[in-house]
Amino acid sequence: MAADLSQIVKAYDVRGVVPDQWDESLAELFGAAFAQVAGASALVTGHDMRPSSPGLARAFARGAARRGVEVTEIGLCSTDQLYYASGALGLPGAMFTASHNPAQYNGIKMCRAGAAPVGQDSGLAEIRELVGKWQESGAPDPAEQPGTISRRDTLDDYAAHLRSLVDLTSNRPLKVVVDAGNGMGGHTVPTVLAGLPVDLVPMYFELDGTFPNHEANPLDPANLVDLRGRVRAEGADIGLAFDGDADRCFVVDERGEPVSPSAVTALVAARELARNGGKGVIIHNLITSWSVPEVVRESGGTPARTRVGHSFIKAEMARTGAIFGGEHSAHYYFKDFWNADTGMLAALHVLAALGGQDGPLSSLVAQYDRYVGSGEINSTVDDQTARLAAVRSAYAGRDDVTLDELDGLTVTAADWWFNVRPSNTEPLLRLNAEARDEATMARVRDEALAVIRG
């Protein structure tokens, strides 16, 4: 198919509707292009539970093998399990998933050996260029010696690696409700938690890429409703929700109340710093809570603030040698996991912290959740640049605030801050605000929205 690559090759991955925007013939070209750009003699592939995933992954493998590359297929896996395989085997990798997108979508997340990210500035542009050329001129000639395609199961090794990083064996028993959203958490969670002091209550563990119960996107509060109710009904200690490819994890406490990803970031940061003798750099993006850098400093660490997005986080982790990084979107990155993101490892840290003391989760996280946040509020605008300039103009002359433009516009005062960022893919401005109390946050939020929406 002559696909419009500008529509499916995004900043960090390939993503689009199957078969309308891309199909197995195009996946085969992507496999050949990735093999050439990665410059490797071998690579590893994995895929999620979407109906189109096995065929796309196999086509990609064929394309790479035709170019002489030895392909190891690990089959059904979470995205962080693919990162594990890339790191442990020292191979470039490709994961077939569209994460939390609806069933008709699919995509490819690619990485170099050691789970190093592939994005527009690190190989994806070259891959797109090759695929475009081959769409016009025909597939590249096969190598003199084609590669082979073999299978390998990495689930047990992945689970053992995670458990080696967080010790839960001496924990008190915990009743844990997990909502896998019919995504890959249903595949990985039972193996990772096997043998631990956990009474697991599974929800929607059946692998089903049509998502019959709810979208596998826990960032939308509507998709946490079932988990919150089940935690309360079971009298559970904690609830965990994973997105479709299970690389993100969201937490709810024993009351069924969502725990802010910033609080989880602060909690895990404190634990990782303690494990590293109270020293280390912790990365956080600029719309995580003020709580995060405060806790990092109190724990002896050095906070480092970055733009939003996994490529920025991973680049900064590599540059600074950071031991951990967290984002407001529940992506958690670990030095001991090749700087890649793994929601499962963050979940183990939360379980260890909870089970290592006697109080409920709500009390435990209170020390890490010190401010009132608005959450992310999207506004559709006709002209992102003009509306952002209007916000800058509205606050630029004030003595009580500072402005910075690391990512969009951040306005900071003594007891509040807000950030406005343009979406890369939609005509939206995204607002996040935080303050020391609810009334101040509401006032700041509403003032900023009034300017954004004109």
UniProtKB/TrEMBL annotation:
Keywords, sorted A to Z: Isomerase, Magnesium, Metal-binding, Phosphoprotein
Domain Alpha-D-phosphohexomutase C-terminal: 376-449
The keyword Magnesium appears for this protein: yes
Domain of life: Bacteria
A UniProt-annotated Pfam family: PGM_PMM_III
Residues of the Alpha-D-phosphohexomutase alpha/beta/alpha domain: 7-134, 156-256, 266-371
InterPro entries per record: A-D-PHexomutase_a/b/a-I, A-D-PHexomutase_a/b/a-I/II/III, A-D-PHexomutase_a/b/a-II, A-D-PHexomutase_a/b/a-III, A-D-PHexomutase_C, A-D-PHexomutase_C_sf, Alpha-D-phosphohexomutase_SF
SUPFAM superfamilies linked to this entry: Phosphoglucomutase, C-terminal domain, Phosphoglucomutase, first 3 domains
Cofactor(s) of this protein: Mg(2+)
Keyword Phosphoprotein assigned: yes
Record family assignment: Belongs to the phosphohexose mutase family.
PANTHER family reported for this sequence: PHOSPHOMANNOMUTASE
UniProt protein name: Phosphomannomutase/phosphoglucomutase
Organism: Streptomyces kebangsaanensis
